[in-house]
Amino acid sequence: MNKRFIKGTMAALVSMLATNAFAATEVTVYTAFESDILAKYKNAFEKTNPDIEINWVRDSTGIMTAKLLAEKNNPQAEVVWGLAGSSMALLKEEGILKTYSPKGLDELRSELNDPQSTQAWYGNDAFFNAICFNEIVAQQQNLPKPTSWEDLTKPVYKGHIAMPNPASSGTGYMQVSAWLQSMGDNQGWAYMKDLHSNIAHYTHSGSKPCVQAGMGEVAIGISMASRGAKLKTQGAPLDVITPAGIGWESEAVGIVKVSDAAKRVVDWSISKEANELYVEMYPVVGHKDVEASVANFPNVQQKMAKMDFARMGNERADVLKTWSDKFDGKSEAK
Questions:
Q1: How high is the mean pLDDT of the chain?
Q2: What is the CATH number of the domain that holds 197?
Q3: Per-residue pLDDT band at 295 (split at 50, 70, 90)
Q4: How many domains does the chain have?
Q5: Counts of helices then strands in the chain (DSSP H, E)
Q6: Is 294 left (phi over 0), alpha (psi -120 to 50) or beta?
Q7: Cα→Cα distances 239→58, 142, 214, 257, 324, Å
Q8: pTM reported for the whole predicted model
Q9: Distance (Å, whole) CA 161 – CA 152
Q10: Same domain? 121 vs 132
Q11: Cβ-count burial 297-321 (b if 16+ within 10 Å, e if not)
Q12: Same structural domain for residues 257 and 135?
């Protein structure tokens, strides 16, 4: 056999073995984070952890939650990072998320985390609802400024309000849950019946009611606080109002398959470094020492409803069926 061939083959084999020896460990991470931020988070993590590579699997919250539940007996994900707290609570109850206490836990805001003593998920950020109120339309229509949820049931607002359909929008569902949890089931459903009388339509997007209010299509949109702040900063004639008991959710992280690499992903995801990336998009993040000033963003932390995320996850199907049976007639066409 040609000695040059043997020498070349041996060199290639040595090179292949060396490459394999230093190959990064791949960790499959399921997420509902927005697609345009995944590369930033992946690159920052891998710069600090060059021996681990993140393989993202991304879809919307509902689809990703259903996928994890369907894979319960044959899990494909190792980490879930960037999924709603109510979904994480449901996944934990189903035994999909494993108990783990990450490094740096004492530096987090406890209200965004799994409230149970055997914690399995931890909040990365939080997003909130608000009332987007068009001041010009209100002046033209002689509408007073609402300051509470109860105000929105007054006859003066009939036909002037839009809100998200909770069966289509997580933003809508978290406000319906907030009403039910803060008012109680009977009073909560009674409130929604009164509010329904004043609703012009329900949208299939969480941000759309605020966009419609900003454009003057309605006077009032129950919607995302962050969208209201952004539109106001861009010049929309909006007042972003936060009544007591606003709905909110955390986006959170947890382990499905326990390994050293999976633990390191979770540890980094709650770190100050990671939170400094989250805060570029979300004014409220998990780390106590990371804050950002967002123009026109309301003081939401004083108005947050006390949310039971486990209840939100468990009751979701029943609540949405009841809501749809009662109120879906005013939903926009899909």
A1: 91
A2: 3.40.190.10
A3: confident
A4: 2
A5: 12, 10
A6: beta
A7: 34, 16, 10, 45, 30
A8: 0.78
A9: 8
A10: no
A11: bbebeebbbebebbebbebbeebbe
A12: no
Question: Residues 31-82: pLDDT tens digits?
Answer: 988 888 999 999 999 999 999 999 999 987 778 888 999 999 999 999 999 9
**Which structural domain range is residue 234 located in?**
128-247+301-330
Q: Is the dihedral of CA 112, 91, 282, 221 positive or negative?
A: negative
Instruction: Please list, in sequence order, all residues whose beta carbon lies within 8 angstroms of the beta carbon of residue 289, skipping any fewer than 6 positions away.
Output: 107, 272
Tell whether 181 and 318 lie within a shared domain: yes
Residue 15 reports pLDDT greater than 80:
no
User: Strand 121-134 vs strand 248-255: parallel, antiparallel, or unpaired?
Assistant: antiparallel
Phi-psi region of 4 (alpha: psi -120 to 50; beta: other; left: phi over 0): alpha
User: Per residue in 235-263, pLDDT tens?
Assistant: 999 999 999 999 999 999 999 999 999 99
Measured between alpha carbons, how far is 148 from 151 in angstroms, rounded to an integer? 5
Copy the structure tokens of residue 271. 């770190």
From the centroid of its chain, how far is CA 249? Answer: 6
| CA angle in degrees (0–180, nearest 5) for 277-234-244 | 70
